[in-house]
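Reviewers asked in the last cycle whether our approach scales beyond single polypeptides. To address this, we selected a multi-component target totalling 708 residues and predicted its structure end to end. The input consisted of the following lines:
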Amino acid sequence: MRHFTVRLFAAVVFLSLVTCHPSRAMAAGTAVEAKGAAGTAAISGKVTFSGSAPAREKIKMAADPVCLAQHKEAALSEDLVANNGALQNVFVYVKDGLAGKTFPPPTTPVVIDQQGCQYHPHVFGIQVGQPLEILNSDATLHNINVQPKENKRFNIAQPMKGMKTRKSFDKPEMAVPFKCNVHPWMGAYGHVLDHPFFGVTAEDGSFTLKNLPAGTYTVEAWHEKLGAQTQSVTVADGETKQVSFSFKK
Amino acid sequence: MHPVPFRKVIKMKRLLFGLAVIGLLGAAAPKPTPDPAVGKAAYESNCARCHGPTGAGDGLDAKRMSPMPRKLSEGVFKFRTTGSGTPPTDEDLFRTISTGLAGSRMPDFQRLPEEIRWQLVYYVKSLSTAFNDQKPEPVNLGTDPGPKKATVERGKELYGQLGCAACHGTAGRGDGPSAPTLVDNWGRPIRPADLTHGSAYRGGSSVKDIVARMMTGIDGTPMPSYADALSSPEDAWALATYIRSIQEKPNFQRVIEGVKGPAPLPSGPDDPAWGAAPATTLRLSSNLYREGEIQPTSVAGISVQALYNEKEILFRLAWNDPNESRESPPDAAALALIPDRRLKPKIGSLRSWPATPEAPALDLSLWQAIQAPAYEAVLKDFAQAAGAPEGGAVLESKASYAEGQWILLIKRPLAPAIPGGAALSPSRPTLIGVAVWNGGNGEQGRRRANSNWVDLVLK
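The resulting structure, written as structure tokens, was:
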């Protein structure tokens, strides 16, 4: 999970670099200098959970033997994952401070995989216009029921293992729920942003927002059960600011 | 001037006639120009009572319905020929208004002129922003490749491969393993369609209707679009052809014909003797409300057969119930006989019986999916005790549950075994009704699915 998140983030950042720089080079004027401007500042830190975390519930997958067979031990719920005080699956992103700047979407898709009748990743970020590849790695029927408020809704069937479907989102929107009605325990959240400065906390609660332009930002940490917190952060070129968030029940 | 050959005249006449027909059809088809005042007036007098004055689905009668009336202002429409999540076409809305939705309280509005129905389409569209934000994306439904290409066999294979059974069940009776946990997009429990009940398919039961539902999904419900999963139009039509083939043909009658059976009446539901007994389908419904909200029942119909000999009558009841419940409350069924048909006006409908504590008693044969035996008793209400009440008689019964269907054999004597019971005789018909409880749906006591009174005739 941690590796996946890191890789996903790295891919997003890499792509934003690849796709942004040429566009900046092409737009040789100063007026559009800011467009797509990735910088050298960074914000990183940790998200913690104070108090004793409730035990993760065992998911009852008996309704579908294909799901059940993929777990030697019962899979655990993912809606609140705290490991020794570190809070996983928190979406950390720049909420404010990028006005006037545009960041072309990467062409490499974000992949959401249905494997073991769970979504991987459970929380993810995606840019407006960036392809989303929905993959079914299970040999059973999943329906992907996505009901955003701002974006186009869809509910599609993926009955076969290996099926892939591409979608994308037109508008920024937080916490777009992904659901499978066939397996009611399955849930994921996608956050659609118009920039690439976001990350999801790993097992150790860590996150990093890289390649930011220097500036003052509102950074938000969002958790599906515990709500959202914001902090104002000012970073200079080449600087990495440490920021921490602490949630409790 | 050359005379025009006769044949040519005929041809020209045909051509002219053809053009005239096309002209007429064309003249009937064009949609009128939107006239919001006309649309609003028609909406207020025909739609607002259920859908609410602003289309919020909160009309006066809304809570008395299951399924609830559509919240038109949200812009989520189930029955479309457009891609998942996109608004319906004008024609889709026109069709729903014109044909109604089977198995729901949405009636057809054939009585309104087409012009007015179109104005309603425009007005309904004006109630939601969905039509401004997005354009309908019509889905190519293909054309019927014919039964040689779109075979039932191929369709059956696809039914398995595409996971239809997860919700709709192996035999299509809506009893799949995921069925009990399904919720709609507003979090309300929802049942997958019983595919064997073609008459209850909301969006129509033809092969083409089924193709449309599979390709576009049913928005707002768990039913997804299979547009990407079906690899060819032939497959879509084959699957729909198979689903069409499992629709049962109900035999709605006002009479249950009991037929003289073999001396020992059959001991099982598959005995060939049943072939001689015509099966009558009875529609079942409920009108129980709590605080103005309908308490929906789930069993919509039951098939009844009867065989009798000199002494006894054996009923074979078959009904679809998506979940077998043997605990409290258990699944149950009852045959209700009116001991004297002159009492019918005092009894009223079985749905509301007993309407008052003074309502006459009925001769009940009650079976429950529990260890205790079925029994017959003359009662003033359905007392669902776990055994025959005082004065009752134990009845022989045999029940089996498989793939979303109960089959119950229940036997009672022709002569009343208990005081005040109904005497069955070939010389006169007896009024009979059937009630069914789906325990898995929390049904017990007054919350039950009831038939109308029909005549039981012994031939």
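The interface with chain A takes residues 76, 83-86, 134, 161-163, 166-167, 177-178, 181-183, 185, 217, 219, 222-229 of chain B (CB under 8 Å). We regard this as preliminary and will revisit it once experimental data from Aim 1 are available.
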